[in-house]
Design brief:
This protein has three helices and 14 strands. By secondary structure, the chain is mainly beta. The strands form four sheets. A seven-stranded antiparallel sheet has the order 5-4-8-11-12-7-6. A three-stranded antiparallel sheet has the order 3-13-14, with no helix packed on it. A two-stranded antiparallel ribbon has the order 1-2. The longest helix is centred in the first third of the chain and has 8 residues. It starts with a strand and ends in a 5-residue tail after the last strand. The structure holds flavin mononucleotide. The site of flavin mononucleotide has 19 residues, from strand 5, strand 7 and helix 3.
C-alpha cells in the first residue's frame, strides 16, 4: 500500500507512480488517434483518455501530456480530428504512441470535412472538432473540443481496447 504521512493535520498520501499506473491500468479504455495539421503535414498521437462531455453544445475531451509534441500544434491550429480505432488497428496505435517524425508515412487518411484535420481510414468512427477550451491537469492538459461533424464507419467491427498494458477488443456479453 502507499505510504501515508500526516502533515499539519492534513493527511498527505504519497502515491507510488508504479502503483498509480498499475491500478489505473486496470481501467480499460478505447483507443483513438487525435490528429491535426501544422500547415505542411499531419501530426497526431494515440489517446486513451478520450471522453464524451456534453450534447448541447456537443463536446468531447481528452487529456494530453504537457510533453506531447502534437499538443502545441493542436493549440496553434485550433482544431483536431479523432479517429476511434478498430481492434484490427492496434499497429496504428503503436505508431501514434511513438515519437516518430512521420507517423502518417504508412497510414491512409483524409482531411476532415470542416477543419481539415486528419482522419484515419478504417477507423470505427471519426469526429471533427474545434478546440473549445483547455484546463491545466497536473502534468497533462484537459482539452475540450466542440464537435463540428461526426460519422460512424464500421458499425460491425469491435473497437480496440487498452487495459492492463495490452490491447484487446470490445465484445458484447449478449
Ligand atoms: C493505448 C494508449 C493510450 C494513450 N493515451 C494517451 C493519452 O490519453 N494522453 C497522452 O498524452 N498520451 C497518451 N498516450 C501516449 C502517447 O500516444 C505518446 O506519448 C506519444 O508518443 C505522444 O506523441 P507526440 O509527442 O508526438 O504527441 C497513449 C499511448 C497508448 C499506447
Amino acid at each position: 500500500m502507499a505510504d501515508q504521512h500526516a502533515q499539519g493535520g492534513d493527511a498527505v498520501v504519497e502515491i507510488d507512480p508504479q502503483v498509480f499506473r498499475k491500478v489505473l491500468g486496470h481501467f480499460p479504455t478505447g483507443v483513438t488517434v487525435v490528429a491535426t495539421h501544422d500547415g505542411d503535414r499531419p501530426v497526431g498521437l494515440a489517446v486513451g483518455s478520450f471522453f464524451s462531455v456534453s450534447l448541447d453544445p456537443p463536446l468531447v475531451g481528452f487529456c494530453v501530456s504537457d510533453q506531447s509534441s502534437t499538443w502545441p500544434v493542436i493549440e496553434a491550429h485550433g482544431a483536431f480530428g479523432v479517429s476511434v480505432l478498430a481492434a484490427d488497428q492496434h499497429e496504428v496505435s503503436n505508431v501514434f504512441a511513438s515519437r516518430s517524425d512521420d507517423k502518417f508515412a504508412g497510414v491512409s487518411w483524409d482531411p476532415a470535412p470542416i477543419t481539415g484535420s486528419p482522419l484515419i481510414h478504417q477507423a470505427v468512427a471519426h469526429l471533427d472538432c474545434e478546440l473549445y477550451d483547455q484546463f491545466p491537469g497536473g502534468d497533462h492538459v484537459v482539452v475540450l473540443g466542440r464537435v463540428r461533424a461526426l460519422e460512424l464507419h464500421r458499425d460491425e467491427v469491435s473497437a480496440l481496447v487498452f487495459a492492463r498494458g495490452g490491447y484487446g477488443r470490445h465484445e458484447s456479453l449478449d
